[in-house]
Amino acid sequence: MIPFLKAHACGNDFLIIEEPLAQRRHAELARKLCARNTSVGADGIEFLERKANGDFFLRLFNADGSEAELSGNGTRCVAAWLARSEGRQEAVLGTHGGLRTCRIVEAADPLYLIESEMGVPRVMPRTIDLPGVGNVPGAMVNVGNPHFVLFVETEDFSAHGLSWQELGAQISTSPLFPHGTNVEFVRVLSPSEIAFRIYERGCGPTTSSGTGTCASSAAVMALCGVDRELVAVAEGGSQRTVWPSSDAAMRLTGPAEIICVGEVSAL
Question: Are 139 and 124 in contact, with CB atoms under 8 Å apart?
């Protein structure tokens, strides 16, 4: 049996399994345990390793078994668990996308409000050519993992004659992005607020994404002249981003809620 914790951030849900990373078949476990109808169900699994020197390292596997660099929401869920289980008010978590520092702002177990340092976003305007669609202008954004951000004005977030889910699937798996990409559809509501939808690499449509929130915010801050502090609203709720300047780290503040703890068969 494998002990696990389940938590979510604005509906973006994760299993957290603590173990030495080399002992398990992580991709296989992710495909099995994340299945919604036949197992625990989640968007991904955060495998948490404690190093001999006391440091933490996370490996994130998506529901389809693919490994991603990091998840802003998943990292925050791990920080909430460490706050509950060990009383940590700050956690520095290593990921394949770099170190992420999470600080507890408010705690009312099982709900935690957490601020995370998310690194320095890199934004590059780019127009891609999709077969059957044509030119799709947007921006490539890296926040430790890859994103392609489109700016839309439609209330349903559709673009180029397709729903955001259909277009997101095409872009996410396009040969233009050999390692795949996350895709965000962003609508500017005011200089201080945006709304967006997320098609997540290796998972599909999700209600929220921490790195997607940062990528969407960085793109509109860099290219659309909005404020450097934003409320970003996804289907699962809102998060707040602060990016003082283009060479500074972005800060992301949002909730994480612990759902349950349990054990699950590894067979």
Answer: yes
The helix (run of H) or strand (run of E) holding residue 14 is strand 12-18
Question: Residue 13 half-sphere exposure, CB side, CA atoms within 13 Å?
Answer: 15
Phi-psi region of 111 (alpha: psi -120 to 50; beta: other; left: phi over 0): beta
Structure tokens at 51: 């190093």
Q: Taking 80 as the threshold, does the pLDDT of residue 20 lie above it? A: no
Domain shared by 69 and 95, yes or no: yes
Tell if the pTM clears 0.85, that is, is over it: yes
Residues 101 and 152 in one domain: no
pLDDT (tens digit, 9 = 90+) per residue, 136-178?
999 999 999 999 999 999 999 999 999 999 999 999 999 999 9
DSSP label of 162: B
Q: State yes or no: pLDDT of 4 exceeds 60.
A: yes
Nearest to 256 by CA among 129, 134, 105: 105
What per-residue confidence (pLDDT) applies to 22? 47
Q: In the structure encoding, which two tokens stand for residue 115, read together?
A: 């601020």
Record the tokens describing residue 120, joined without a space.
Answer: 């320095």
Structural domain of residue 68, as residue ranges?
2-115+255-264
Q: Is the dihedral of CA 60, 263, 50, 249 positive or negative?
A: positive
